[in-house]
Write a structure and sequence with these properties.
344 residues, alpha+beta, seven-stranded mixed sheet, 20% strand, BirA Bifunctional Protein, domain 2
Length: 344
């Protein structure tokens, strides 16, 4: 009978360890501590045992009963703590979830992607170049030698750099037209490419100027390219970006790397061409410069201007979302005010 009590103790404790609910604990209590349990039956048979054996078995049986009662209470407390914890941490699945903020692209990135998509659909490829550029590609290859007055209009950020063969001037590029010079030098016609990127000018920040901004330049080189091809390409871009009803105007202008040169303006979106403060009373807002690529620029890049002709254009990307959305301060595009950025 002593062996039966030890086996009963072992089985009871094993089952108690696997219990996970109050209902299972009550079933366990009835099975091992109830009136009809095996332990109760053994205690009822004590009277038939010899005196000495009755004492030993009775003592062990009472100790086992007390031990199981104590273990049951400990398990009951553990289940109560578990239930209380579950109630505190419970989730009401009928409640609506917390909204997760949706990320979005910066307005300048959106504008840049849209412009690139427009030109890619017209057969241009997107090309990028270095932001730290040689003086040659930024100026000389574009028909802007050291004494050229156009350099006076570009407040340049120069970089100190000394090569093995002596000093070679480098700078933070002042326009992405430097990538155009690299394309002309390294590619074989026909060429159609647009070059977006950051450019740098040493100037103070105000409502219309920042020292770092974005541009996109374009170049097309092939046989028989004319000014009509340039105008048709830029008309199509303006129609897609600003809408079919926006009027476009071309006027002669000067740029060192094109001849002839033109500036393209769109009808002011605020006054509809009547004249206002935004457009300076003219009714027009200039958005880009363009023209037929200067023969000397092609020649420097190893392309025969007697065989091939070319057009080129360049525009400031930052101005376009300002015109489209009526933004009056360019510095808002480079701030971190989420109230502003969430509008786009």
């Amino acid at each position: 009978m002593l062996q039966q009590l030890e086996e009963l103790k072992l089985n009871a404790l094993q089952e108690l360890g696997s219990i996970g609910s109050p209902g299972e604990l009550e079933d366990w209590r009835v099975r091992y501590l109830g009136k009809k349990s095996e332990l109760s039956m053994l205690l009822r048979r004590l009277a038939a045992l010899p005196l000495e054996e009755r004492k030993a078995v009775g003592t062990l049986a009472n100790e086992l009963k007390a031990h199981l009662e104590d273990s049951r209470r400990q398990k009951e407390l553990a289940l109560q703590e578990l239930a209380a914890s579950a109630r505190e941490e419970a989730l009401d699945i009928t409640l609506p979830g917390r909204p997760v903020p949706t990320g979005r692209l910066h307005p300048l990135t959106q504008t840049l992607d849209e412009i690139c998509d427009i030109f890619v659909s017209m057969g241009f490829q997107v090309v990028e170049g270095p932001e730290v550029e040689w003086d040659y590609y930024n100026f000389e290859a574009l028909n802007i030698p050291g004494e050229h007055p156009a350099r006076d209009n570009m407040a340049t950020l120069w970089v100190d750099f000394e090569a093995e063969n002596g000093e070679r001037p480098m700078l933070l590029r002042t326009h992405t037209t430097s990538v155009t010079a690299r394309i002309i030098e390294g590619a074989t016609p026909p060429i159609r490419a647009v070059e977006p990127g950051k450019v740098y000018r040493y100037e103070a920040s105000d409502a219309t100027h920042v020292p770092m901004f974005h541009q996109i330049d374009g170049i097309a080189v092939d046989k028989g390219i004319t000014m009509a091809d340039l105008k048709g390409t830029l008309y199509e871009f303006a129609r897609r970006f600003f809408g079919e009803d926006r009027k476009v105007r071309f006027r002669c202008d000067y740029f060192p790397f094109v001849e002839p040169g033109v500036e393209m303006a769109i009808e002011c979106s605020v006054c509809g061409g009547e004249g206002c403060r935004l457009c300076g009373g003219s009714g027009w807002i200039e958005i880009l410069g363009a023209g037929m690529t200067h023969p000397e620029v092609l020649r420097r890049g190893g392309i025969d201007p007697e065989v091939y002709s070319s057009f080129a254009f360049g525009m400031g990307i930052d101005r376009l979302p300002m015109l489209r959305y009526g933004i009056d301060d360019i510095r808002l595009l480079y701030g971190s005010d989420l109230r502003f950025l969430r509008q786009f």
